[in-house]
Design a protein that fits this description.
The protein is mostly beta strands. It is built from no helices and 29 strands. It has strands at residues 2-3, 55-63, 68-73, 77-82, 87-91, 99-102, 115-119, 125-130, 135-140, 149-152, 158-161, 167-172, 177-182, 192-196, 201-206, 212-217, 221-226, 232-237, 243-248, 254-259, 264-268, 274-277, 285-290, 296-301, 306-310, 316-320, 327-332, 338-343, 347-354. Mean pLDDT is 85; it is low at 1-42 and 44-51.
Length: 355
């Protein structure tokens, strides 16, 4: 249950069909009356071994009642949230054991509008935002009966959390002030720090190694900070209101920015230097995620496609075809062998790397 226990000024929330074909080929040769043997037929061509599939292949899909706008992945489970405010979790490798963990409502004001969905690194907890970012929620997956807990305010404030959920990123003062705050449920002493901006905050992300902080604002700027000191180190200028996603690699050394008009770029975090451009998507690029090994990344776009890229060069490696509408969210599993995609076509699709 979500508790309204924050003051406004410090708000803290998819028949198995199998076809077996047997091909039997043979020839019967008879002796001729003159005892001459027929000419020996040419040898049959050597059979070729079946070609081994490589690249990314879809393994299964799951149908939702509503457009899917969020997916997340751990080593054993996947999670997806749809525009109806529902969140499901299931066994990511098989698609089995799908459970409804958050139930939405029929009215827009009731559906919970889930946002910023993520597993903790151990896969035992899920953090996210709800009610148009007015609440932060936490779900402990170790206990099936564990209720959803959260904190709700009367204005949008929740921008996300660190990988472990122990640092919360908040927006205040008409979304123009970033608050960096310790987890209110676990921290003995909650440290609060604030950064003010002249433009509204659209994204705030902490690198998985907790070394960097990136903040995107509506004026088209992405600012980089040292996480510990909150010292600003770089400013990356882009078009106004163009950014739809910002993500760091696991080691924090690279940063990816995606957005409108096919925007997809990679940067060196320490220097802010552009290192590669992701050229392929048409229209909006809605989502981006690095593989945990840092070698590749996946993007999802308005062109109904998800694309796999080389994280060093920006070269496109594979196109994931199957969705019939915009791909709104993407995620890798911790082993970098599975990709989960969520789409406005009301499906989640899971892809496996065949080697």
């Amino acid at each position: 249950m979500i508790h309204n226990n924050l003051k406004t000024t410090s708000a803290v929330a998819l028949g198995l069909a199998a076809l077996l074909t047997l091909a039997l080929a043979g020839s019967l040769s008879l002796a001729q009356p003159d005892d001459k043997q027929p000419e020996k037929p040419p040898p049959a061509p050597a059979s070729r071994p079946a070609e081994k599939k490589t690249g990314w292949q879809q393994t299964y899909s799951i149908k939702h009642e509503f457009a899917v706008n969020l997916v997340a992945c751990s080593a054993t489970r996947a999670a997806a949230a749809d525009e109806g405010g529902n969140m499901f979790i299931w066994d990511v490798k098989t698609g089995a054991n799908r459970l409804l963990k958050i139930k939405g409502g029929k009215k827009e004001t009731e559906n919970g509008s889930l946002d910023r969905l993520q597993f903790t690194p151990d896969g035992l907890n899920i953090f996210g935002a709800q009610y148009e970012r007015k609440a932060i929620f936490h779900l402990d997956l170790q206990d099936p009966k564990q209720p959803l807990v959260g904190i709700k305010a009367d204005h949008p404030w929740q921008l996300g959390t660190s990988a472990d959920g122990e640092t919360w990123l908040e927006s205040h003062n008409d979304n123009k002030t970033l608050g960096v705050r310790g987890n209110r449920w676990t921290a003995n002493t909650v440290k609060e720090e604030y950064i003010k901006y002249d433009s509204e905050i659209s994204h705030a992300v902490i690198s998985p190694n907790d070394k960097w902080l990136a903040v995107a604002t509506a004026d088209g700027k992405v600012r980089l900070y040292e996480r510990e000191s909150l010292k600003e180190t770089q400013i990356i200028p882009l078009k106004k209101e163009s950014v739809t996603g910002v993500q760091f690699s696991q080691d924090g050394k690279r940063m990816a920015i995606v957005g409108n008009e096919g925007l997809g770029k990679l940067y060196d975090t320490a220097t802010g230097k552009e290192t590669a451009v992701l050229k392929a998507h048409k229209g909006i690029v809605f989502a981006v995620a690095f593989s945990p090994d840092g070698k590749t990344l996946v993007t999802g776009g308005d062109d109904h496609l998800a694309r796999i890229w080389d994280a060093s060069t920006g070269k496109q490696l594979h196109v994931l075809k199957g969705h019939s509408d915009s791909v709104k969210s993407v995620a890798f599993d911790p082993g970098s062998n599975l990709v989960v995609t969520g789409s406005a076509d009301q499906t989640v699709r899971v892809w496996k790397l065949a080697e």
